[in-house]
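For this section, I looked closely at a protein sequence along with its fold in token form, which I now present.
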Amino acid sequence: MNINGQFNATDLLSDRLQRSNDDKLKQLASAKRINSAADDAAGLQIANRLSAQNSGTRQTEQNLYDGLSMATLADQSLQGISDGLNEIGRLATQAGSGILSADDKAALQKQVDAISAGIKDQIANTEFGGTKLFSSNGSIALGGEKSQFSLQTTDLAKQLTDGGVFAIDLRSADGVAKALETVQANSRQIDNQRTDIGATANAMSASARNLSNQNVSEQAAISRIADLDYAKASTERVQGQIREQAGIAVAAQSRIQSEQALQLLS
């Protein structure tokens, strides 16, 4: 009768049950099915690859929404400039009235100069995150690896200066006629720029929504692989504890019977 062998087999079974219960407890504590490569080597590799991919998806989505905020700011600023041009156009129309005196036209000119100064100030102070939006001609890259866009920037002060906006003079009949032409031409340019910004914003918004859906799908896939089924794990933990306790009871009974057998043999 191999009593030692019986003890060793019982001890090994007890150790295996205890390790299994410890693993379940670790999973329950972390809420993760995979806590190391030993739990599921292939699953860990797939989950890590999907996690890296998902990080890029989420960051690109965030970049796009930041870009949308920048585009919104640019459009709002251009709207303010467009409003200023419209007001200058209204003043120019008013200056064309034959009943106005020279002093009246001079007063209108002061209003035009004040609006022009406001436009210049708005151009100089329109920035997003420290980036000036209307200080130079070029483009600002938006988005990321999975979805790339660019927001076109313009040296707006130079554009309006070259367009004659800051040289409008309502004190003469020729100046009034020229002012109306100047306002119309520059308003068209501003509207075209707003159209481009709006188109870019719409495209970024659509891409951001698509990436948001992709993010949800990727997160779900990662969860199915790496996250723990808490109800199932809790049940298995209880079952393991019962088996462990039963194993301890069996081992204890086996030792008692073995000791009794030894006493009979001695």
Remarks:
- Residues 135 and 145 are 27 Å apart (CA to CA).
- The longest helix spans residues 41-95.
- Confidence is low (pLDDT under 50) at residues 1-7.
- The beta strands are 127-128, 131-132, 138-144, 147-153.
